Amino acid sequence: MLCGYLLVSIMSTTFAESRSVVPHAEEQIAALLGQMTLAEKIGQMNQVHAGDMDAVEVLGDALRAGKIGSIINQVDVATVNELQRIAVEESRLGIPLLVGRDVIHGFKTVMPIPIGQAATWNPDVVRQGARVAAREAAKSGINWTFAPMIDITRDPRWGRIAESPGEDPYLASRLAVAMVEGFQGDDLTAAGTIAACAKHFAGYGEAESGRDYATTNIPENELRNVHLRPFRAAVDAGVLTLMASFSDLNGVPATGNEFLMRQVLRDEWGFNGFVVSDWNSIHQLAIHGLTADDKSSALEAATAGVDMDMAGRVYAGHLEELVEDGTLDIDVIDAAVINILRAKFRLGLFENSYTDPDTLPPIANPEALATAKTAALQSVVMLKNDNKVLPLSTDRLERVAVVGPLADAPYEQLGTWIFDGDRELSVTALQGIRDLVGDQVQVDYVRAMKMSRSTSTEPFDEAVAAAGRSDAVLLFLGEESILSGEAHSRADINLPGAQAELVRRVRETGKPVIAVIMAGRPLTLTNIVDNVDAILFAWHPGTMGGPAIAELLFGLESPSGKLPVTFPRMVGQIPIYHSQKNTGKPPTPEKVVHIDDIDARAPQTSLGMAAFHLDAGYTPLFPFGFGLSYAEFAYGDIRVSADEIPVGGTITVSADLTNHGDVAADEVAQLYVRDLVGNVTRPVRELKGFRRLRVAPGETVTVSFELHTDDLAFYGRDNTLMVEPGDFHAWVGGSSDTGLRTAFRVVAGD
Ligand code: BGC
Questions:
Q1: Whole-number pLDDT of residue 666
Q2: Shortest CA distance to 275 belongs to which of 309, 317, 318, 229?
Q3: Which residue, by CA, sits nearest to atom 5 of ligand 1?
Q4: What percentage of the chain carries pLDDT values higher than 70?
Q5: Closest by alpha carbon to 691, among 677, 701, 679?
Q6: Ligand 1 centroid, distance to 278 Cα (angstroms)
Q7: Tell me, what's the pLDDT at 135?
Q8: Which atom of ligand 1 is nearest to the CA of 163?
Q9: Separation of CA 484 and ligand 1 centre (Å)
Q10: Where are the domains of the chain?
């Protein structure tokens, strides 16, 4: 095999010679299409798996015959270059390959899992993380990632919540745009930029009971007001591709869903990139029961608007016959091929099909590691800090006990979807703490549990002894990475194994207990929350999680993450999320009756008559947007620039934010709005803006949010976008349950 990156200088002798890219790309695409046989067209619509094999040997002939448009899962750059060379030089038309890979939250250098990145509420850091990932992946010849995953989900049982931006469409939209910008950059032809793929289109995050791949039933109005919004934002940001979801949406699996892929995506949004199926999801249309066999699945998916078949070989096996027997119009094929070729042109692949890894920055360079550390620092959410037990001080401590299965777990801290993540680069929390305290503080480490799921309590005696000797106990709890991610849903989202018992035993020592929790999802922490003094929720924090956690524990930086998803008290509350509807019988604290307080003969009407659970009330354990700080932030003087705005106008909502504490820290100020009367009922609160600000001790800053009436638009009863005149409430604060409120009115414009 030729050494790939030497091939950079070898120009294709076929199509590549005869054209330049934009602005004449559309004509060039048409010209190229005109030369293609049906088999070559279908070849472009075929993506094949190219990992775990001698890909050159296995795929060479098909490439030469123009029967493959894209490969997935080959990351050896020499092999990728050789596959490109065969496609470009040895196939009749010399069309280069799209080289796809799941680069979800980093390549070798791993950022926090996406739900952790969402907890930063920092689009800049998210954009930077995607840029690092793109540069590292591009060194392997990858030119297309299957990210961002932007499925809204309100179900922490679902394993893929780890990959998602959480529950809120506004936050998800902002982060979707940041990721697309990070991967794709300003110039897709530049070295180190790769095509992004917004997935999974659409509704996947509503999987029934959080069981992966399960059915979703989402009314069109809810689909448009919630689930489609981040996809629209990604499309507007120029995302090159979308991936159809595995799931069944309202009876029509997304992979065969014409409403989604034609009506909404193409006709309404004007998307001109291409849509790829999910892995073998065209074949699965028959398993869903939508079609009888692969041939009809190919027909349904192509007609619905899936341009490329990922790893299914269903298009390769059946499209030709469908066109030849007149069942499928050739225009459908042509449109798909044009979309795919357009993406290849935009990536500049015809000009530059090969990868020279030496032209890209080294893997895990200082900037990459610094980005991973900043992302980890900002992703950690402090959920509790009684009596200011945190931050710890190296001056006041002599000895700490570091206990638990996730303190020194370099692989686990990387989280799910890290095919290429390098565990050798991971700095664990134990290492981070040791590096930070040096010989000032003695660190006693007891793992206590082989893994989070262990049930043996035998090693707890040693942990308790270490705790007893120490001035503070740092408990590293949570879930291994394998417990979240695709097809890794849980019905019980308590800390697994004997972890709650470990907390209880350590608590008995009377020492301050600080829990650092690494997990791929919100957990129900009700059974441990009262047995610890402080909680840092660190998600799976990635390569640089250890130093970040150490710096937060010892106060070199203040925690500043905010929850991108609501934490329930118990599983039975799910779905519980901040933008719920009011209902006709909204609960209030006075109405809540606890199950233990019900008289034996209590009449029905004495039980509150409101929307709450007798055993859980109606509030979550920790609300969306929540997160504590070492600073003491207070909001005041919320105000609006005008009491009324005409439709089409803009209003400014402001509040003062003061840091009454004695350390500088970042705060994420949040703007929520309620539309009091709607053509369809509106949520009790909707996030409409946020801003991360650094505030010095004693400083007061004014936080202002501009709201255009378009920002208040929603899909009404007829599922068209509308802005309605009427009364609105607005809140500014540090969490979705903040109390500082003002009001304004939207009036009909001129
Ligand atoms: C997942 C996608 C992923 C694809 C390729 C599928 O199982 O649902 O998110 O991009 O595999 O690895």
A1: 98
A2: 309
A3: 279
A4: 97
A5: 701
A6: 6
A7: 98
A8: 9
A9: 14
A10: 366-553, 577-619, 633-747
Cα 692 to Cα 628: distance, rounded to the nearest angstrom: 14
Q: Is 146 in the pocket of ligand 1 (CB under 6 A)?
A: yes
Name the residue at shortest CA distance from atom 4 of ligand 1. 279
Asked whether 199 lines ligand 1 (CB < 6 A), one says yes
For a ligand 1 pocket test, name from 279, 283, 417 the mutation site with the most ligand atoms within 8 angstroms of its C-beta: 279
Asked whether the predicted pLDDT for residue 476 surpasses 90, the reply is yes
- CATH number belonging to domain 633-747: 2.60.40.10
Instruction: For CA atoms 74, 160, 117, 517, give the dihedral sign.
Output: negative
Does position 15 have pLDDT exceeding 80, yes or no?
Answer: no
With b for 16 or more beta-carbon neighbours within 10 A and e for fewer, the 439-463 pattern comes to eebebbbbbbbebbbbeeeebbeeb
Cβ–Cβ under 8 Å, residues 138 and 190: no
3-class DSSP state for residue 744? strand
What pTM did the predictor assign?
A: 0.96
CA of 245 to the centre of ligand 1 (A): 9
pLDDT tens-digit map of 397-448:
999 999 999 999 999 999 999 999 999 999 999 999 999 999 999 999 999 9
CA-nearest of 244, 104, 121 to 627 is 121
Alpha-carbon gap, residue 341 to 148, rounded angstroms: 22
- Cβ(724) – ligand 1 distance below 6 Å: no
Q: What is the DSSP letter of 605?
A: G
Contact 102 CB / ligand 1 (< 6 Å): yes
Active-site positions read 278
Distance 163 CA to ligand 1 centre (A): 11
> 199 alpha carbon to ligand 1 midpoint, in Å?
9
Atom of ligand 1 nearest to the CA of 199: 9
Express each pLDDT in 555-613 by its tens digit. 999 999 999 999 999 999 999 999 999 999 999 999 999 999 999 899 988 899 999 99
Round to whole Å and give the CA distance between 131 and 37: 38
**Would you state the structure tokens that stand for residue 565, as one six-digit string?**
């998803």
**pLDDT(7) > 80:** no
Residue owning the nearest CA to atom 7 of ligand 1: 279
- Strand-pairing partners, residue 654, are 639, 704
Beta pairing class for 700-708 and 381-385: unpaired
What percent of the chain clears pLDDT 90, i.e. is strictly above it? Answer: 95
What is the CATH number that goes with domain 366-553?
3.40.50.1700
Query: How much distance in Å is there from the Cα of 243 to the middle of ligand 1?
Result: 9
Can you give the pLDDT at residue 23?
A: 57
Specify the amino acid at residue 690: F
Common-topology check for domains 366-553 and 633-747: no
By most ligand atoms within 8 Å of CB, the mutation choice from 98, 101, 102 for ligand 1 is 102
Ligand 1 and 300: CB distance under 6 A: no
Measured CA distances, 502 to 377, 413, 507 (Å) = 27, 20, 8
Please answer whether residues 552 and 558 qualify as being in contact, where contact means their C-beta atoms are separated by less than 8 angstroms.
yes
Residue 22 predicted with pLDDT over 60: no
Written as one string, the DSSP assignment of 671-736 is: EEEEESS-SS---S-EEEEEEEEEE-TT-EEEEEEEEEGGGG-EE-TTS-EE---EEEEEEEESST
> Which strands form 98-101's sheet, in the order they lie side by side?
144-145, 98-101, 70-72, 46-49, 309-310
- Ligand 1 in reach of 278 Cβ (< 6 A): yes
Among 691, 581, 734, 747, residue whose Cα is nearest residue 221: 581
- Give the residue from 185, 213, 210 showing the smallest Cα distance to 200: 213
Q: Say if ligand 1 is within 6 A of residue 231 CB.
A: no
Place of tokens 């503080």: 441
Centre of ligand 1 to C-alpha 246, Å, is: 9
